[in-house]
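Sample intake sheet
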Amino acid sequence: MKVVRFTLEGSMNSFRIPQTSAYQLTYLVPTKTQITGMLTSIMGKGENDYYKLLRKINIGIIPKQVDSLFTDDWTFRKWKTAGSGRDILRREKLYKTIYIVYVSAENVIMDEIVDSLKNPQRIPSLGQDDELVLIKDVKEISMEKDEKNIVHSVFQFEEGMIFKPNFNKMPGMQIFPPRVVTINLQFDNNNIPRTPMNFVQIVEFVGMYCELDSKKTLYVDQEKHFNVDMI
């Protein structure tokens, strides 16, 4: 399978878990919908193109580094007069993030994605508009499917699955143990506001990889020796 692999590096990023409001929690890893949003933006396209692209691509993400997680507080204006018309929003943020991202798609779309990664038409951001990222090491590679029980990327959780975390043994690496979170893979944009759909559970972590109790169909990066779940 033809895949483009690239690295995203951010200074401060937040990937909001949708079910949170006044205290906004963050995923450890950007979701498929957020990566697709960044790709649509740097391709110079709009909202309708985003929903089309979301249905046509598959994405795998290896969380390489998150230095720390902290909380950012800021005030905002509101319509109610209580609290002098102001309130406080608390948001979790990730500091110094690095992710290796794999994207697969049809050849025509892939060519456009690769070109935009090398020559972005807009400033790349991930999470929110002001959370900028650097795109590095863009490379087209070939990946083949294989049955493996070691997975280095975040991966889709299946009922009854058992997995064991293993450390990468990198000195000074910040460790975030595996946790199961729920994300959506698509939107129904026929109504306003749009409705999230096709929810799946994902195992996310940083600074480690996981050993599964049974083999899973994964895509193998022979160059970097990574087994990747493409979702």
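Comment: The longest strand covers residues 58-77. The chain is about 15% helix and 55% strand.
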